[in-house]
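Issue: copy button drops trailing tokens. Both records pasted manually instead:
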Amino acid sequence: MKRRSTVRGAIRRWLPGAVLVLASAAASAQMAPATDAVEDPATALPPPPRAPVTIAPAEATAIGLRIEAARNERVAESLRAVAVVVLDEAKVLHVPSPVAGWIEALPGAAVGQAVQQGEAIASVSSPELVTAQNEYLAALRDARFGPRGATLENARGRLKDLGVGDAAIAVIEASGEPLSRIDVAAPGSGVVLRRPVGIGAMVDATTELMTIADLSSVWIIAEVPESGRGLARIGTNATIDFSSSGRKAFVARIDYVYPTPEQRTRTRRVRFVVANGDGKLRPGQYGNVDFHGPSHDAVTVPRDALVEIGAGQYTWVEVAPDHFEPRSVVPGARIGDRVEIRAGLAGGDRVVAAGVFLLDAESQLQTPAPRLNP
């Protein structure tokens, strides 16, 4: 009973004061004018969790403190990306066997060597081919005693479908005997990428005899960070440098931007189609691609002046002699050893360019620790 009386007494003493506080707050809310004003984004940046610091000149010299004024200058955003030469997929030729049979010889070039259009790359023996030739010779003999009919044209067409060219057909007509094997010719010029069959291997129409790549044009694929997507759009020009190829740097235009980012690197791939008549660019070579944006006026500071904490960044600004305070900023493009500041600073503001982290550590020592709720 005694404890219950004590609690009731405490409530009686607390209640009048609480009512008075609530009434005062309500009156203040009614008197306060309403406003819809929106803060300037440059001034609405959250303050960094650091305390201002005063550093004596001797101490500033000891820690290597260096101050530099923020500059107003004309800048252009730039980006360098790693790139690699790959095959132009539209110029890769897959050469199948025109007929079922087996490989008698492989007179063509080896992997990595050049092959010319029309050059023999394989010799194939085939019972099907011999049968087709005999049918053609029979139709040809019949045509000598009468008009050329559909039978002869059909037999000739079948030989063409089996890969027998006009020159070989002329040899068959002149000799009156079927050829024991047929030479498969390269349908285009290029470099041999694959030759997966060997002599004696059984082949059919689904067997690939050789893969040929025409390197007269190649693709260059650049890996662009997501932050640089604004500089890498279809139709944008960029400077490409593959010094290891012996070719001078050149300018090319983006032909295609791949729609999905690379999961491993979180970059976006962009493609250039580049003429390669001299053959200096070879698949697998690595180089650099430089992208450049339009120039504009901006405030810049040294890159070392930025301090990053969490999701924000800030700089240390000398607001009075030997007195420094942290100021939140919004960084933009990086230009060499400097960085654009889009909000938070003005040209002429004196920022700490060296000794930043020692100054930051001193500030943390002077920042009171947050109180824990009981």
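Record 2 (pasted manually too):
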Amino acid sequence: MLHWLGFQFEHLWGPIRLLQSHLVLCTLGALLAAVGSFLVMRHWLGTLPCDRGREHAAESVKSIGKPTGAGALFIPVTVLVALLVAPWDPYRAVILLGVLLAMGAGFLDDCSPDAWGRLSKGLIDLFISMGVAWAMIGGESRMEIWLPFFAPKMGQEALLDGTAGMLAPILCEPWLYGLMATALLWFSINTTNCTDGVDGLSGSLLSVAFLGLGGVLYGVVGHVDSAHYLLVPFYEDGASWAVIVATTLGTLAAYLWFNAYPSQLLMGDAGSRALGLLLGVFVLATGNPFLLLVVALLILTNGGTGLFKVGFKKFLSIRVFDGIRCPLHDHVRVNWGWSNTQVLVRFVIMQAVMAPMLIVILLKVR
């Protein structure tokens, strides 16, 4: 809406044209989401259900009784601010609706006296992922992705189709892209959910991941000159997605204010599932699915070990990671004696160091 206002009323007051700037919209989105989420959580904290503790999780008894499901408070703020500051796109609105559905399903689980079964939650995540994947396709007849380590088009072919000096994208059939996107979104939702278990950990790791994705969306694939220089495709809506990334970062800043150790509230499944979905969506928006490994390696390692351990044992009767307690943050607390603060700081340091290095490798090694 604000972007539209900048175009409609710039002739009435010159400075309003600043609303056409994606950088200004990023700033406004982050600020509005941070302030709005902070006020909503402070005012409505007492209405949240109490945490019942996670089965088999280390130190879960310490969380019992704390307000949980805070995602039901800050995710609607994120969606509303995103609709306000980001340029309008109907498919993007459908995706944000999917985020609300993921939040709603997670909040119902948070409110339930007994935790929902893994199969029930997995199927709900699957259906939501399928709907969001369809919206990401957006009616296109071919979906374009790009992969690392591929050389750009050269010679006569590149001159004829105007792609000289640019990375040759891979064009996927919508059904194939939909399958890949669904799997990525489902995995992102569940690894993020498994990472939520230490005060400040999930929110901090997501913040680092979103910072990297926001930089790629705004400064690389969303910037025509940078895209040409780095030999990656240029996406016109890249900067618009960066506005939503910035909005989500503002929300996470407000949440971490309350979730810093010792936490006053927990995001619950209402927050972790919706934020995990957004993580996958932002990765798909860059056009390179491998960026999930690059920007969220610690999230995938921390939560993914448990998914693979349970999946292999349940469906293939194969035991893997027997010597590892899952999620990984429980292993280092119980087996290595790390404190919650050490887990938080060390995990964030590892992701903050690895993510920029891997992004540079992804973009520069051709």
